[in-house]
Design goal:
mainly alpha, 5 helices
């Protein structure tokens, strides 16, 4: 009986870890970023200088984001290992969750810094449209900045 319980717990832990990893790898682009991106590239009629500055900001942010997403995948692997080792919410699981939340918070802060950096490139009339799009994206039900 004990062996079957252990197998069931390991299977549960593996399934949970798979869901967490899949959620990180396959998550859609956050609503705020996709709406802001569409606004900037399709509606604001940026001049060539603005386009170049925005492009540089996006390239730098993409690198930072990829690095943090890789950290989150590693955190998910550590969480899976902790779950497999503790078979419950123990100190290792708690530490892994806290670490994961820390990196998610860092990514959210970097995303907001990126949004404000792009806003700084805009003319006042463009910035007003930009602000409205960001507020709309953040206040629609179920939306978060990431």
């Amino acid at each position: 009986m004990g062996r079957y319980l252990l197998v069931a717990l390991v299977a549960f832990a593996a399934a949970l870890a798979a869901v967490l990893v899949a959620r990180t790898w396959m998550s859609p682009e956050p609503q705020v970023e996709s709406e802001v991106h569409a606004l900037i590239h399709k509606k604001l009629k940026l001049d060539a200088k603005q386009e170049a500055r925005i492009h540089a900001l996006e390239g730098a942010f993409a690198q930072r984001r990829q690095a943090m997403e890789a950290e989150m995948r590693a955190d998910n692997a550590r969480l899976a290992q902790a779950i497999a080792a503790e078979h419950g919410y123990g100190p290792k699981v708690g530490e892994a969750v806290d670490r994961s939340h820390h990196v998610m918070g860092m990514l959210q802060k970097e995303t907001l810094k990126h949004i404000f950096a792009m806003r700084a490139v805009l003319r006042p009339d463009q910035a007003a449209q930009f602000d409205a799009a960001v507020v709309k994206a953040l206040t629609e039900p179920g939306q978060t900045a990431r």
